[in-house]
Specification:
Helices cover 26% and strands 25% of the residues. It contains 6 helices and 19 strands. It has a 6-stranded mixed β-sheet with strand order 1-2-16-5-19-3. A 4-stranded antiparallel β-sheet has the order 4-17-7-15. A 3-stranded antiparallel β-sheet has the order 11-8-14, with no helix packed on it. Strand 1, helix 2 and strand 2 form a beta-alpha-beta unit. Bound molecules: 2-oxoglutaric acid (AKG) and fe (ii) ion.
């Protein structure tokens, strides 16, 4: 039982009411849209409670470190550790470090991943191509230095997407809960298998036995390199989802991080707009991915 159970309409309706009430609180003047923390990343007690509350309500929280910051990287690691995030994702690009420095790569390589360019990135959750035993359930995105212009992030809580789809047609949830609904083909670079094919559901409940539901989502709106199940229900579910992502929903939050600001989240949907680096104003972000959630 619980609000992710399609049979339990009562729990679902109650949860929808709670989620909507949380967005009404967001609109009030008292709402802390940037939680102030110390310049070494330490999160004081009241701010910690607020951060956890916001992650519970919206899937994410934004923080701002006050004062001059000596070491952005260690501050960001400390932020993750304080909210209980431990297992850092080993990415293709930062195998030894597990925290990725995102900035425009100037080398002449033709197959640079989009995050290392100044291009826009469409709606996705992080690590949507990861094998099932390395599911990215949370990430921290921290800004050391913003671009000269552009490079905003839009954020959307997968729980609001789930609600929208279920209210349109509960069968969309069934379609998106099938473990093979979305497949990412293997990745071969220079003849070497870097990653095997991965198939998964879009919506997963990460809760252990007896725990409250914990919705996780895997998604990318890229057209290339994603093989969707070829049935009508999946096609309709995907159309409904895509339309929602393109619409002006009140649950989408847009923010451009300034130096010392960051996003901490349970791997919510996000985008990035294209940006321009100036000669003395280059965008430098850090990104850390985790296999556990903020609870
Ligand atoms: O650069 C950004 O703002 C976000 C990058 C991103 O979403 C990613 O690397 O997965
Ligand atoms: Fe991302």
């Amino acid at each position: 039982m619980g609000y992710l159970d399609l049979q339990d309409q009562k729990a679902f309706r109650h949860w929808v009411d709670e989620k909507k009430a949380a967005y009404e609180r967001r609109a009030s003047d008292a709402f802390q849209s940037l939680i102030e923390i110390d310049n070494d990343g330490h999160i004081p007690g009241p701010q910690m409670s607020e951060m956890r509350r916001q992650v519970q309500d919206y899937g994410f929280a934004l923080y701002r470190m006050s004062g001059s910051i000596v070491d952005h990287l260690s501050a960001m690691r400390s932020i993750g550790a304080q909210v209980g995030l431990q297992a850092l994702d080993k990415t293709l690009c930062a195998p030894e470090d597990r925290v990725t420095r995102l900035k425009v790569t100037e080398s002449g390589r033709s197959n640079i991943y989009i995050p290392y360019t100044s291009k826009a990135i469409g709606w996705h959750t992080d690590g949507y191509y990861n094998p099932m035993h390395q599911r990215v359930l949370a990430f921290v995105l921290h800004c050391e230095s913003p671009s000269a212009s552009g490079g905003e992030n839009e954020l959307l809580d997968p729980e609001m997407v789930y609600i929208h789809l279920r209210q349109n047609n509960p069968e969309f949830i069934e379609a998106f809960s099938r473990p093979g609904v979305m497949c990412i083909p293997e990745n071969i670079e220079n003849g070497v298998l870097v990653r095997p094919q991965t198939c998964s559901a879009v919506f997963m409940n990460e809760a252990g036995d007896g725990q409250a539901p914990q919705l996780a989502m895997r998604f990318s709106n890229r057209k290339r390199n994603i093989i969707w199940a070829q049935d009508n229900l999946t096609r309709e579910a995907l159309a409904c989802l895509t339309e929602f992502l393109q619409s002006d929903s009140p649950y989408r939050i847009c923010h451009r991080l300034k130096s010392g600001e960051g996003l901490i989240c349970n791997n919510i949907l996000h985008t990035r707009t294209a940006f321009h680096d100036g000669p003395e104003q280059r965008r430098v972000y850090y990104r850390a991915r985790y296999y556990n959630r903020i609870t």
